[in-house]
Amino acid sequence: MEFTTDYENRTAAVADLFTATFTATAGAQEGALIGKLVRRLMAETPEEDIRVFLAVDDGVLVGGIFFSRLSYERDTRAVFVLGPVAVATERQRRGIGQELIAYGLERLRREGMDIAVTYGDPDFYGRIGFKAITQADIPAPFALQYPEGWLGLSLTDTAAAPMGQTPLAGAAHCVAALDDPVFW
Predict the structure, then answer these.
(1) What is the spatial distance between Cα 61 and Cα 55, in angstroms, rounded to a whole number?
(2) Among 4, 120, 136, 150, which residue's beta carbon has the most beta carbons within 10 A?
(3) d(CA 105, CA 89)
């Protein structure tokens, strides 16, 4: 298994992976929605605001994760939101997603990023180190449908409350592709 950041040469395969994975787990409508989201993330998001990590096994794309920037009006800390995440359905439950996320988080740490957040299953993401957070500590760009799924992880020793420092200040802004309440 190889992890890579080279998505520019695989945009169609990446979109197909996410579409197929979300179609299999959540239906055709969700698959189409997430497929469109990843296409927009790859095509429209400035390079400094996106990180894409892929898992490739014997030349075959088997997993992918996206991190995109969240900015806060009155805070300079570097925050990235994890999502979406996909592992080919026939390769799930083998730890590929967790390994890929750990790899991505380590790369963000090495780049000097401060905080990673995600919006998802607390049990799954808790195994990787994410903890429950509140919007008072780290505001989301939109009202959350499932506030219990708002999770954060400090990428430094003192990056964010409740993980060690003051709450993030100001309204949150996400990248254009995620700027829709349907994703929150």
Answers:
(1) 6
(2) 150
(3) 23
pLDDT grade for 158, boundaries at 50, 70 and 90: low
Question: What does pTM read for this prediction?
Answer: 0.93
- For residues 111 and 127, give the distance between their C-alpha atoms in angstroms, rounded to a whole number: 23
Q: Which residues contact 127 (CB under 8 A, 6 or more apart)?
A: 98
Q: Provide mean pLDDT across the span 145-159.
A: 87
The structure tokens listed for 64 are 């992918």
CB-CB contact of 85 with 65 (8 Å)? yes
Quickly list DSSP for the chain: -EEE---GGGHHHHHHHHHHHHHHHH-HHHHHHHHHHHHHHHHHS-GGGEEEEEEEETTEEEEEEEEEEEEETTEEEEEEEEEEEEE-GGGTTSSHHHHHHHHHHHHHHHTT--EEEEES-HHHHHTTT-EE--TTTS--SS--S-GGGEEEEESSSS-STTSSSPPP-S-EEE-GGG-SGGG-
